[in-house]
Amino acid sequence: MTAPALPVVIAHNKTLMGLFAMDVNKEFHYPKYFSMLPVGPDPRAAISEGFFEIIKANKDKLGLKTIALAVDDGEATRNTADGARANIKKAGLTVVHDKTYPPPTTDFSPIIRAIQATNPDIVYIASYPPDSVGLIRVMHEIGLNTKVCCGTMTGPQSTSIKTSLGPMLNGIITFDFWLPAPTLRFPGVMEFLQRYQEQAIGKGVDPLGYYLAPWAYADLQVLGEAIEQTKSLDQDKIADYIRSHTFKTVIGDVEFGEKGEWKKARLMTVQFQNIAGTSIGDFRDGKGEVVLWPNEYKAGEPILPYSSVKH
Fold first, then answer.
1. Alpha carbon distance 81, 79 (integer Å)
2. What gap in Å lies between CA 227 and CA 7, rounded to an integer?
C-alpha cells in the first residue's frame, strides 16, 4: 500500500511515515519519507540475514547444500526475495527451485508439491499473511521433508495466526521485529501494551499487539515530537527535524538514514518451538518463540531438522 501511495505523497510534497513497508523509496529517494521498519540501510538483504546466518552455522553439521524458493509476486515479498538471493550466494547454496505465485492464490498444494519434488535441504518462502496460513497448513498435510524452513514468512508474528495454527508452527524459522523478551523491554513499551491490551478486548484486533502496535505508536511518537519541537506543520521543517534527530520511542532509539530507512538494522530471527495448543496463553509474553539471532538477543538454539519436529 505504501509503494503506490508514495508517488501521490511526492506530488503533494508531504511528509510520510511508513509502517512495515519494504524499501519502497529505493527509486524515488524522496527526502520526506521515513520508514518505521528496523531493516537498516540494506533492507532487502537484512530481513533474511539471520535466517542465512543460522544456515551457515549449521551448514556442515546438517549437510545444507540446496535451497528451494517460493515467493508471492507482491511488492514487499519480491523485494525481500531479492535480498534473500544475495544472501544465498554468500552462503554458497545451490538453488533447485525458484518460483513466484500470484497474490490471489488459494490452493497451495501445487507449490509445496513442486518444492518437495526437488528434495531441497532448505525451503525459503516470502509470503504475506493469508499465503503463510495456507502454505503452513499444506506443509503440515503433505509432510514437508526439509532440514530448514521457512525464511521470511509474514503472518506468524500476529496473534490471530499463531492461535489459528498452534503446533503447526513448531520448527518454522522466520523473522520478527519485537517480542516482550527481557532484553527488548524498552522504556514505556510494557506500559503501552498494558493500555493497548485493555482496550483491544472485544474489538477484533490483535489481543496481544506484540507485532504491530508498538511500531505504529512509535511512528506517531516520532511525528509528534517533530511537530512539537519545530512548533510547526511545515512539511520541510518536520522532515528536516526527523532526518537529523534520534528519537526515544517504545521500541527503542530510532534514527533515520538514507532513503528514510533506519540507520542501523535491528531485526530478529526466531523459531517457533514447543507450542502445545492454540490459546492466547500459549503465546503470551513471547512464549512459543525463541530468538536465535542476533547474539545480543539470543535466547536458545534452533531445533533441526525441520522434518523431525513434532507439529
1. 5
2. 23
Neighbours of 305 (CB within 10 A): 18
Asked if residue 114 lies in contact with residue 99, where contact means CB atoms within 8 angstroms, the answer is yes
> How far is 139 from 160, CA to CA, in rounded Å?
19
3-state secondary structure 179-220: CCCHHHCCCCHHHHHHHHHHHHCCCCCCCCCCCCHHHHHHHH
C-alpha cell at 236: 520541510
What's the full length of the chain, in residues? 311
Tens-digit pLDDT profile for residues 256-310: 998 999 999 999 999 999 999 999 999 999 999 999 999 999 999 999 999 999 8
Catalogue all structural domains in the chain, each as residue range(s) with its CATH number.
2-36+186-260 (3.40.50.2300), 44-177+267-308 (3.40.50.2300)
Centre a 10 Å sphere on the Cβ of residue 138 and count the other Cβ atoms it contains. Answer: 17
Q: What is the pLDDT of residues 2-35, one digit of tens each?
A: 999 999 999 999 999 999 998 999 999 999 999 9
Residue with cell 511528509: 15
Whether the Cβ atoms of residue 164 and residue 133 lie closer than 8 Å to each other: yes
The DSSP element (H or E) to which 153 belongs, if any, is: strand 148-153
| CA quadruple 211, 217, 218, 220: dihedral sign | positive
CB count within 10 Å of CB 232 equals: 13
Q: Phi and psi dihedrals of 272, rounded to 5?
A: -80, 125
Residue 121 is given by DSSP the state: S
